[in-house]
Write a structure and sequence with these properties.
4-stranded antiparallel β-sheet; about 230 residues; 8 helices; about 35% helix; alpha+beta
Length: about 230
C-alpha cells in the first residue's frame, strides 16, 4: 500500500476524535459544542434567499455571500459526503449584539463610542478562529476531509480594513485562504433549525431589537468531517 493512501478513521475511532475536537472548542472559547451526525444538518435554499431579499448590505460584496459562494445543491453534496461534525456556539451579551443602532454601525463600518462594533467583531473572529483550529487539529488526527462554516461575512471579519473582496476583484487568491469559510446561512444551512435539533434555545435578533427583548445572543459555527 502506497504511503499516500488515505485510510479513514473507523467509526468508533472517528467518534472519539470528534469528541476531542468538541472538547477543544470548549477549551478555546466556545460556550457549548456538540458532536452531531451529518444527516441532521438541514439545508434549505430559502436560507440563502434571506441574504438577498431583503438584500443584506454584504450581499454581492464577498465571494462567500449570495449570490456567490456555495449553492444549496453544492452544500447538500458536501453534507451528504460528511459523516460527523462539531457544532458549536459562542454567546454574545444582548447589550452588544442587540445594541441600539448596531445594524447601522455595522453597515457604516465605523466604530461606535460604546465599542460594540469592535466587541462584536471579536466574537465573530473567535468563530472563524475556532473553525480554523478544529480543522487543523482534525487534519493532524488523520481526518483529511473537513469543511468549515462560520458566522457572518468573512469580508467583514477577516478583511475589514480592505475595500474589496480580492476574489470578486479579479484575483484567484484570497487574502486569508486558510481562515476564510462561508457562513452557515450563506451556504443554505438552517442554523436555527440545527440549533433546535441539538436542544439550544435561539433568540432571533432583528434590526429593531432592543437588548431587554433578547434573552441571549449567540453566533454559531460548524466543522464537518468525513
Amino acid at each position: 500500500m502506497g504511503k499516500d493512501t488515505e485510510i479513514p478513521p473507523a467509526p468508533r475511532e472517528m467518534e472519539a476524535e470528534m469528541e476531542s475536537l468538541r472538547s477543544m472548542a470548549i477549551t478555546h472559547g466556545a460556550s457549548n459544542a456538540q458532536v452531531i451526525d451529518a444527516d441532521i444538518i438541514p439545508v434549505d435554499p430559502r436560507v440563502r434567499f434571506k441574504c438577498m431579499i431583503p438584500k443584506c448590505y454584504m450581499s454581492g460584496r464577498c465571494g462567500h455571500c449570495p449570490p456567490y459562494g456555495y449553492s444549496a445543491e453544492k452544500t447538500r453534496e458536501i453534507v451528504s459526503a460528511g459523516k460527523m461534525g462539531v457544532f458549536f456556539h459562542v454567546r454574545v451579551n444582548s447589550s452588544i449584539i442587540a445594541a441600539k443602532n448596531i445594524g447601522d454601525v455595522i453597515t457604516s463600518g465605523r466604530a461606535d463610542d460604546a465599542g460594540n462594533l469592535l466587541s462584536l467583531g471579536g466574537h465573530y473572529m473567535l468563530i472563524y478562529t475556532l473553525v480554523h483550529m478544529l480543522r487543523k487539529k482534525a487534519a493532524e488526527k488523520g481526518i483529511k476531509r473537513t469543511q468549515g462554516f462560520a458566522a457572518g461575512c468573512c469580508k467583514d471579519v477577516l478583511c475589514f480594513l480592505s475595500k474589496n473582496c480580492r476574489i470578486l476583484n479579479g484575483s484567484d487568491q484570497c487574502r486569508n485562504p486558510e481562515m476564510s469559510v462561508p457562513s452557515l446561512e450563506s451556504a443554505g444551512i438552517d442554523a436555527f433549525r440545527l440549533a433546535s435539533r441539538v436542544g439550544w434555545s435561539v433568540y432571533p435578533i432583528g434590526g429593531r431589537c432592543e437588548p431587554h427583548s433578547v434573552k441571549r445572543g449567540m453566533l454559531m459555527g460548524l466543522v464537518l468531517a468525513g
